[in-house]
Amino acid sequence: MKAKDISRDLIKAIDRLNSYKKMEDVEKNLDNFHNPISELITPEWYYSDCFRVLDNIEISWKNLGESDLIRTLGDVLERALIREGLAGIEFERSFCSWYQSYHYLPREKWGIHMRYDSLVRIASLFYHHCPSTVDRKLDSAKSAFLYLFSHELFHHIIENATSILEIVSGKSNLYVRYYTDVYSQVFNSSDCIEETLSNVYLFQCADKCRIDRDFLKQELLKQGPGYCQFIQYVDSNFPEGNRILLSQIRQGRLKPTTYDPIEQVVDVPDPFQYSAFHNIPIWVHHKAKPVH
Ligand SMILES: [Zn+2]
Q1: Ligand 1 centroid – CA 139 distance (Å)
Q2: What residues make up the domain containing 80?
Q3: Is residue 250 part of a domain?
Q4: What's the CA-to-centroid distance between 202 and ligand 1, angstroms?
Q5: How far apart are CA 93 and CA 96, in angstroms?
Q6: pLDDT surpasses 90 at 68
Q7: Are 93 and 49 in contact (CB under 8 A)?
Q8: pTM for this entry
Q9: Which of 131, 143, 181, 278 has its CA 20 to 30 A from that of 174?
Q10: Cα-flanking dihedrals φ and ψ of residue 99, to 5°?
Q11: Which residues lie across from 199 on neighbouring strands?
């Protein structure tokens, strides 16, 4: 086993668990295996062309500076116009970025997805207003990437934690059941604790992402329902939030009957450390695809 292959090994284990399902059944009923919410909220982006970036490159502050994506971003951001009010950088809610799970098929595009114009916009915001990156093009571009990456990475961390629960319990449907019965039902509401905790994770990683903590705090507090509640679960409250989420996943219901101490399966090192052990595909979208 190579360190970088942990996500691949988890996917293989999930497939073994599902081996009673014949692949031809899956192919015949592919619609039942599609990720329901990414298609629902972002069809024009979900189906748009994208290309893979930073493939097999360890994500680090130094390595980011050498990537073509980040360098190009640094070059264009000075000219980018940003709206006043600075709203519209709320991940899935603003269609800036999303995470496509490997539990759904087809799996070719699983991973973290980002829109290029959103990256430009966030980098421009950081360049003009974030005290830790102001007037520094390349740093603003790197921090903008890490802003989207860290939030979306937490969704992947949670999927991996769920895979571990599935493997240990022998129950292959925990993720899909939770996604359908809990996450999709409460997305965009204050009950969506997965979005809350994704922002907690980003906030906890602020120093690593070189995003000024107070600036980030104020930006995240302006975000929509679910996202802006992050402040309730920062620091020592983070494990409690993870316990609630993992209990929802394990029981497939918004209000679990018990909250068992299973949050330890949520592995939360900083994004650089995590990506050193997990080769997570990252996709960038340039242009929406007309769907109507
Ligand atoms: Zn999210």
Answers
A1: 23
A2: 6-285
A3: yes
A4: 10
A5: 8
A6: yes
A7: no
A8: 0.92
A9: 278
A10: -115, 130
A11: none
User: Which residue reads 């992050």 in tokens?
Assistant: 230
Beta-bridge partners for 100: 111
In this model, does residue 262 exceed pLDDT 70? Answer: yes
Token pair listed for 11: 């996917």
pLDDT tens for each residue of 168-210: 999 989 999 999 999 999 999 999 999 999 999 999 999 999 9
292 found inside a domain: no
How many alpha carbons lie under 13 Å from residue 32 in its C-beta half-sphere? 6
Angle in degrees, 0-180, between the axes of helices 137-169 and 68-76, rounded to the nearest 10: 140
Asked if the structure places residue 290 within a domain, the reply is no
Is the pLDDT higher at 20 or at 274? 274
- Strand, coil or helix: 166: helix
Range 240-249 average pLDDT: 97
Q: What distance in angstroms lies between residue 23's CA and the mean position of ligand 1's atoms? A: 30
* Residue 95 Cα to ligand 1 middle (Å): 10
192 domain-assigned: yes
Residue range 32-57, pLDDT digits in tens: 566 665 555 667 777 788 999 998 78
Domain count, the chain: 1
pLDDT for res 1:
46
- Write the single-letter amino acid at 217: K
Q: Quick one: which of 5, 27, 179, 162 has its CA closest to 98?
A: 179
